[in-house]
Specification:
The structure is a single chain. The chain is of the alpha/beta class. It has a domain at 55-370: Metal-dependent hydrolases (TIM Barrel). It has helices at residues 77-86, 104-115, 134-146, 165-178, 189-201, 208-212, 216-233, 245-256, 268-271, 298-310, 353-362, 369-383; strands at residues 4-9, 12-14, 19-21, 23-27, 30-35, 41-46, 51-54, 56-61, 89-97, 122-128, 151-155, 181-185, 237-239, 261-265, 315-316, 401-412, 429-440, 443-447, 450-451. The strands form 3 sheets. An 8-stranded parallel beta sheet has the order 8-9-10-11-12-13-14-15. A 7-stranded mixed beta sheet has the order 3-2-7-16-17-18-19. A 4-stranded mixed beta sheet has the order 5-4-1-6, with no helix packed on it. The structure holds dihydropyrimidine-2,4(1H,3H)-dione (DUC) and zinc ion (ZN) (2 copies). One zinc ion is lined by residues 60, 62, 319, 321.
């Protein structure tokens, strides 16, 4: 019997800390040897001329999430994880969203049913807490943490999700007690309501005005408020999908005070702008870019790059939140023509996250390949209790690996992608750097865009307490 199921030979292995020429031996889905030369494998893959990276970990995706009575997400766990794998990602953390008035435990059961037998790559859940009743806070959350869902998201906006300040404090206190990591959607509800009514009153209803209804100060104010609550409770928090300098300044200020405030950003904040929401002559096609917080401007891109380089951001996630464009259940919902506020909020990006960061970041000399790995894989695994099983290339880790051609030039186009949405916001976007093979738990998941993994190959991941949160 061969000593290894698989050997990846001749490549340059890049982790968050090192770049090394070595071979990788895989057995039973895990990495069992790193050595100058590995022979005796049932299957050998020639990686010469390629970089060998840990598979991407995308810690912020929405799959098959309930999105209102007439709206349907374009990806479930099957198509979403297929697209992830095709883009070089081998682990996703998706949201299990509590509907107000329902049990959080039932909601998580429902997401387990949605994902079971469907996912092509490993997955875990963050909880979304929208109704923090005493039984949710005192019974359900602790039980779900013990079951491996060790992080949850709270919203400071949206009618069906918003928590008031007292509720935020109560939820933060539970996170402190249970050592869970709280992710915060930081945009201020009342200010958005006020601006939306004003814009609508002025007849400004096109998708572009979505961006004007949520300027950066809305994000800055909510970020500051979340930080103050976290300081009061003395609990670490993660501010997700940060879009520009103003919230970043709050995060840096908090860190300067010694607070554990972490931050995430996404491809849309280094590659799209609010002007994209103008569509063709302010028509409804701008809805393709409606997400929250909205994409900003070139000055914000520069600020985000600073933050990716200087450690303000730990993670670079997709915030994949896919809706169809040409569908009444998507961006072209009949009411969307009457106001931007009815355009479903979110864009697809699970398959293009790595290419955009590599191309704009590493290929343009803004970040190193090691920083790329930290931002797209290692830090996600560490932050959310999956390290070192996921997020690195080391003996004992799962054999989640992407063979990366750093020089391959491609143009992102809908017709080469695998996601369920009928468009990509990056249509025509030229990139340098592309995944040529994705290996998930030692199996070849995707090679040259052809998907070999099957629904059910991905398993649910019970996560540990985040080491960033664990009390000393
Ligand atoms: N928040 C997200 O995290 N994703 C999409 C929309 C939103 O508001
Ligand atoms: Zn959000
Ligand atoms: Zn999101």
């Amino acid at each position: 019997m061969a000593e290894f199921d698989l050997a990846i030979r001749g490549g340059t292995v890049v982790t968050a800390s090192d770049t090394t020429r070595c071979d990788i031996g895989v057995r039973g889905g895990r990495i069992v040897q790193l050595a100058e030369s590995i022979t005796g494998a049932s299957r050998e893959i020639d990686a010469s001329g390629l970089l060998v990276l840990p598979g991407g970990v995308d810690s912020h995706v929405h799959l098959d999430q309930e999105s209102g009575p007439e709206i349907r997400m374009a990806d479930g766990f099957e198509s979403g994880t297929r697209a992830a794998a095709a883009g070089g990602t081998t682990t996703v953390l998706a949201f299990a969203k509590q509907e107000k008035g329902t049990s959080l435990r039932d909601c998580v059961m429902r997401y387990h049913q949605k994902a079971a037998g469907q996912a092509l790559i490993d997955y875990g859940f963050h909880l979304i807490v929208s109704d923090p009743t005493p039984s949710v806070l005192n019974q359900e959350l602790p039980a779900l943490f013990a079951d491996g869902c060790t992080s949850f998201k709270v919203f400071m906006t949206y009618d069906d999700l918003v928590l008031n300040d007292r509720q935020l404090l109560e939820v933060f206190a539970v996170a402190k007690r249970e050592q869970a990591l709280v992710m915060v959607h930081a945009e201020g509800y009342d200010t958005i309501k006020f601006l939306t009514a004003k814009l609508e009153g002025e007849g400004k209803t096109a998708p572009y005005f979505h961006a004007l209804s949520r300027p950066q100060l809305v994000e800055r104010e909510a970020t500051h408020r979340a930080i103050s609550h976290a300081e009061l409770i003395d609990v670490p928090i993660m501010i997700v999908h940060v879009s520009g300098r103003e919230p970043m300044e709050q995060i840096r200020w908090a860190r300067g005070r010694g607070l554990k405030v972490f931050a995430e950003t996404c491809p849309q904040y280094i590659s799209l702008t609010a002007d994209d929401l103008k569509g063709d002559n302010m028509d409804i096609s701008g809805g393709k870019y409606v997400c929250s917080p909205p994409p900003r401007d070139h000055a914000s891109w520069a600020a985000i790059w600073e933050g990716l380089k200087d450690g303000t951001f730990q993670t670079f996630s997709s915030d994949h939140c896919p809706f169809y464009y040409d569908s009444p259940e998507g961006k072209l919902h009949p009411k969307a023509k009457t106001s931007f506020r009815y355009v479903p909020n979110g864009i697809p990006g699970i398959e293009t996250r790595l290419q955009i960061l590599w191309s704009e970041g590493v290929a343009k000399g803004r970040i190193t390949a090691n920083e790329f790995v930290a931002l797209t894989a290692t830090n996600h695994a560490k932050m959310y209790g999956l390290y070192p099983r996921k997020g690195t290339i080391a003996v004992g880790s799962d054999a989640d690996i992407v063979l990366w051609d750093p020089n391959r030039k491609e143009t992102i186009r809908q017709d080469i992608l695998h996601h369920g949405a009928d468009y990509t916001p990056w249509e025509g976007f030229a990139v340098t750097g592309w995944p040529v093979m994705t290996i998930a738990c030692g199996r070849i998941a995707v090679e040259d865009g052809k998907v070999f993994s099957r629904p059910g190959d991905g398993q649910f991941l019970r996560r540990e307490i985040s080491p960033y949160v664990r009390a000393a």
